[in-house]
Write a structure and sequence with these properties.
The chain has 474 residues and is of the alpha+beta class. It has four domains: 31 residues, no CATH class; 125 residues, Immunoglobulin-like (Sandwich); 141 residues, OmpA-like domain (60s Ribosomal Protein L30, Chain: A, 2-Layer Sandwich); 113 residues, 60s Ribosomal Protein L30, Chain: A (2-Layer Sandwich). The protein is 21% helix and 36% strand. It is built from eleven helices and 20 strands. Strands 5, 10, 12, 13, 15, 16, 17, 18, 19 and 20 form a ten-stranded mixed sheet that branches. Strands 4-3-11-14 form a four-stranded antiparallel sheet, with no helix packed on it. Helix 10 links the parallel strand 18 and strand 19. Helix 4 packs across helix 5. The longest helix has 19 residues. It is elongated, with a radius of gyration of 52 Å.
Amino acid sequence: MISPEISYNYNFFDIADNLNWKTNEVRIGTSISYISKTEIPKIEPSPEVTIIKPIEIPKVVEPVKIEKKIIRPTIISNVQASVQAEGKDTNVVKIVIEDHFSRYLYPLLSYVFFDENSSELRPRYVNLSQKDKLTFNEKTQFINSNSLIVYYNLINVIGKRLKSRPNSKITLIGCNSNTGNEKNNLDLSNRRAETIKNVLVKDWEINPENIIVESRNLPRNYSRGGLIEHEEENRRVEIYSDDFIITEPVTAIDSFKTSKQTEIKIKATATSNVEISEWKLKVFQMNNLNENLFLEVNGLKNVDSTFNWVLNNKSKLPDNESDIIYKLESKIHQTDFDTTSVVFGKINVDLLNFRKQEESNNNYIEKFKIKLIMFDHNSSEVSTNNKKIIDLICKSITPKSTVKVKGSTDYLGIEKDNKKLSENRANMIMNSIKCKPKSIESFGLGHVDLFTDKTPEARFFCRTVEVFVETPVN
């Protein structure tokens, strides 16, 4: 590379001391520059710089609050009580409950039943302690009782009567089902009868010579049909006596309530524009601070139904004069809230106890209730024992009396046949009552579950006729 050059130097001072000598210099020339031929190093480009922009944080905007409009569903509900009168449903505002003081006859079912192939006495037959034997009194023992409780004291009742009548005799006939291991097993039948004899001799100190023991296979009037229930009924010991007092019914004083109305209908409706979650219907009476509950039903979804509150001597009846409340409560469950509807009504109660009846009416009604059992399976024949009981009934019937005879059967058999059998039993007893009351009528109820037990004795007590005698007493 050739390039011209020019330079000029000016000295402000002398060259040497003591000399007045100054020099100025001008230079003109040419300069030559060169570069040797060598590898020129590769210059890497500088890295690209990325400029990062700062992140913009968005400004938080508060959401606009929109108030949610809550629409509550509406429940339309109603509850109403009615009673049927003259073929029409009539609103009921009052029911009349009568408290009765009555005599009650508990006939003795003089059969003792045994388990299969066994001669041991079942534990449900009451075994009194020595102290209880001394105070046992059938006249007071079974007040407000029932037929099965009396029945399970059968051996005690007969033992007490035999003890008070030392000249009376009884006959014990042991029987078997004559099937399976019991077929032709007269030894088993005999042992069963001996079991009853030993209890009477040991526990009640009855003279063994006054107890006759016999044995046979099937009973004389055995239960036919081939069902297990029939076999259970045939495994028994039968107790007979020529002295009617030994096996006569137990007489007790009882009190019970009846209602002028026999059935009250409770109509309950609850509907909504959404489905109802649950509802409950209650019929109750307050007794102090406690609820005396008569009917309670509940369910899900909408309801539009009629429920029957049956009032009879088997059901619980009002025991005071507080109003009866019937209440329907319906609910809809939702996320934010519950919707509840409660509607109710009330029924007045007129409780006619003994004193009120005597004060309001000179003619107080005495009620006499008798059950006749000893109807064998599928039979309406009036036994000798029942004929003697009918004689007792006639002593309580006057020309002013009204008599109702109601027959029933157990759950075995066909419904139609049971209805006819119950009518025959009622008619047979009604026709056997020779005394002349003011009125007498009979009804066949068919199968009636008087007891929840599925035992032979419970079935026998369902094969019955009940006689109701009402007599005005001045």
